[in-house]
Amino acid sequence: MTQVTRQEVLGLYRKIFQIAKKWQSASGQIEETIKEKEYIKNEAKTLFRKNKNLTDPKLIKQCIEECEARIEIGLHYNIPYPRPIHLPPMGLAHKQGRTLRHQEKLRKISKPIYLKSHDELS
């Protein structure tokens, strides 16, 4: 990781904790605010620790873009949790074969960048 990339990643890490410090839940309830602050901190710690040994510049750039997207979406909608996506169900595909593989590929391609790491942890 280059020094510039390292500074960018550490800046994002600090930014997330500053956001968590000032976070107010949409409902305004103290219990929910505390719960959401803890979620933001734990999610950041988990994902940054998981990705701390990455060396591929493309993967690092992808993680940075995902982090920035999740920050922007969280601040815009005032929701710290990843927004769900609505994809068509896979009920029409057979249990095996080309149709199933094609639908799985389409679902994977259509997944937004801000949900890439969320499914890996769940």
Key structural traits:
single chain; about 120 residues; mainly alpha; 5 helices; flat
Please give the alpha-carbon distance between the first and last residues. Answer: 27 Å
Number of helices: 5
> What structural category arises from helix and sheet content?
mainly alpha
- Rg result: 17 Å
Relative strand content: under 5%
Low-pLDDT stretches: none
Task: Give helix and strand order, one letter per element, not per position.
Answer: HHHHH
Residue share in helix: 55-70%
User: Major β-sheet, in short?
Assistant: none
Shape estimate: flat
**Overall average pLDDT:** 83
Got a strand count? 0
Describe the structure.
The chain has a domain at 4-83. It is built from five helices and no strands. The two termini are 27 Å apart. The mean pLDDT is 83. It is mainly α and 122 residues long. Helix 1 (3-22) packs parallel to helix 3.
What's this model, at a glance?
With 122 residues, this protein is mostly helical. The protein has helices spanning 3-22, 30-50, 57-77, 98-109, 116-121. The protein has five helices and no strands.
Q: What's the structural blueprint in terms of helices and strands?
A:
Blueprint: H1 3-22, H2 30-50, H3 57-77, H4 98-109, H5 116-121
Helix pairs in contact: 1-2, 1-3
